Amino acid sequence: MKKIVLCVPNISEGKDCEKINLIASVVEMPGSKLLDMSSDTNHNRSVITFGGEPEAVKQAAFNLIKKAAELIDMSKHKGEHPRMGAVDVCPFVPVAGMTMQECARLAWELGWAVGCDLGLSGYFYGYAAKKPERKKLSDIRAGEYEALPKKLEKPEWRFDFGLPEFNPSFGATVIGARDFLIAFNVNLRGDDLDLARAIARTVRGSSNGIFSNVQALGIDTREKGYVQVSMNLLNYKIDPIAEVFQAIKNFAVVFDAEIHSSEIIGLVPRDALRGVSIEYLQLKDFDPQRQIIEEALGL
Q1: Can you state the angle between helices 100-118 and 54-71, rounded to 10 degrees?
Q2: Count of CB atoms situated within 10 Å of the CB of 156
Q3: pLDDT tens digits, one per residue of 268-290
Q4: CB within 10 Å: which end of the chain, N or C, has fewer?
Q5: What is the mean pLDDT of the chain?
Q6: Is 77 among the residues known to form the active site?
Q7: Could you state a single Gene Ontology molecular function term (predicted)?
């Protein structure tokens, strides 16, 4: 079977379209195809998804990190979404003919190249983690960019690759291997940010909420006419997207709020939407041909 891998870097730029396009453009090369770009001005973050043959995708990821380091200055970055570096996270995801161990090896090879050839630093996470306490992205990113200088004074938080000192312009990146993750946002009509934050606490696993495989934050998007429950669904097979959506809708009703819309950022496996309609989820701007992984890759 032909080996196919996805790479889904999140960059800390969601406002400057010229910069975003320049960064995304470097991933197009033989064996690597740009599949999706999703930007959010409130998050001040963009998710760039590309896929193809492992070696080509690894080289494309290197190109992206290099270009992002040239164009993004983290010392000036502000945004609603937690972040630690210009390329905040860069995961490899197996699609076809790939094992998770092979994806972890790609992550290690990329990290060492980024450290040696670009002089940039970071950590390995997920299935590529070198230490148990670095498996979860949220644990690595605790304190965000602003906490990095103090964090690096602690031996347990020395970088896995790259120079040992703080880089104010780049920050740090986190490279790893993981399963499919669905970036799913549910938007609530009105301006009740406290409600969005309360619902996020109720559904996320870290707060002993309903769904053990959901990460969630309440995000301030009030100038758009809604507030947002921004989520990562870490295992859609255990916590299906339809069940998460319905739970949020139920909580909203209790507090006399309405769902404005929902969004899937980036791509999603076909199986995650099996048996549930776009209309039921109130998805906005969703393009199945472009955003379902198998369709985008012609599988």
Answers
A1: 40
A2: 8
A3: 999 999 999 999 999 999 999 99
A4: N
A5: 96
A6: no
A7: glutamate formimidoyltransferase activity
